[in-house]
Amino acid sequence: MARNITPKEENYSQWYLDVIKAAELADYAPIRGCMVIRPTGYAIWENIQAKLDAEFKKTGHVNAYFPLLIPNSFLQKEAEHVEGFAPECAMVTHAGGEELEEPFAVRPTSETVIGSMYAKWIQSWRDLPVLINQWCNVMRWEKRPRLFLRTSEFLWQEGHTAHASSEEAREETLRMLEVYRRTFEDELALPVIAGEKTAGERFPGAIDTYTCEAMMSDTKALQAGTSHFLGQNFAKAFEIQYQDKDGELQYCWTTSWGVSTRSIGALIMVHSDNDGLVLPPRIAPVKAVILPISKDESVAEHDIFPKAKELAGKLDAELGGMFVKVDDNFHMRPGDRFFMHLQKGIPLRLELGEKDIAAGTVRLVRRDTGAKTDVKTENVIPEVKKILDDIQKNLYIRAKDFREANTYDAKSYDELKEIIDSKGGFVRAYFAGTPEDEVRIREETGATPRCILPNTGTGTCIITGRDNGRLTVFAKAY
Question: Structure pTM?
Fold first, then answer.
């Protein structure tokens, strides 16, 4: 167990921060609530960004960029939207040494400014659909910041689309939800539950909101990504209209969807342990590190290092990128070098010493299990690929098994309260209550409805007793 990391069983919040510090992922900025994303943390974000961006483009979306500042009058046009975001908005009131005639909001999200542009660009049914995404930063003034999970400024992508019909917009909303689900599970090894948000948890101004919910290793939930069917609310607020094939003027149907750097927080909390960061190979900036080792520093540097560099080049060529690092910290003890890379979450360590070279082998050490394997030099490349694939699968299975072991069913409100209080985790129960009922549940249990499970029929609501309840997952959440 690492001395510089608080065991998660003792203090989970401090463990999380210690892992971030040990892995050099981020640090606190001199601005309240903001963070500096360090190179390793940003490299992870770049990999997540690349995976998602490729999927967006496969589904016909293109990237653009919209302004950071949004006129306050824009936010006022959609009443539910402004009510939802007003407490979090940072406002610019002065510029150029003068007070502005109209204050500008630092974007908390871009539905309003993008809606104003779509109103200019869309004239005819031939202009539809409009499928645009942007990668940017947003600001939501956070009262209780936590690195990656809740910061006043964070990075994300936000997709915004406009369609000729409700059916097409709804299809888009669910298509992007599936893109998120698939990316989280296949690339980040994060098992998620995809479902619909309840009325009290919807995005401000949306008709329906859909979410991907993940369980962290303390059994709390984290909302990993959301996709919103906005109906015609923003189209009517910003006059986004088109002329249909019959020459009639119609309002568009719009969607929005987003994933942020919060996903890095999810990676940390789902996969990491008391020794430090653990990363799935497909998202890790460095998939493997090779350590030339010798009691004689000169031998390690001049004799073994070139062989390690040669092996790294072959592995990179096979893996299709610059994913393999050679450790040249010859001044450090081998144990310290091992531990440094372990804390940074590098999935696979390759040890190459004088005895290994003499025997024609390389030692492979997995980060997820600590298992060690001595492999013949000629078999190293296929074995590395095989082990990396196995680590990816193992992390997903391990996380999914943990979620299933901490998921329960409640047939009454009293039972839900008892489970949340004594066990935590995800609790499934039929629910058909109002947003006011959701507030009551949160105040009495600390839990919120995370999502409604699809295709599960109806049952007796634990609050109202009516038979129109939908099976809903409840949990305490970040």
Answer: 0.95
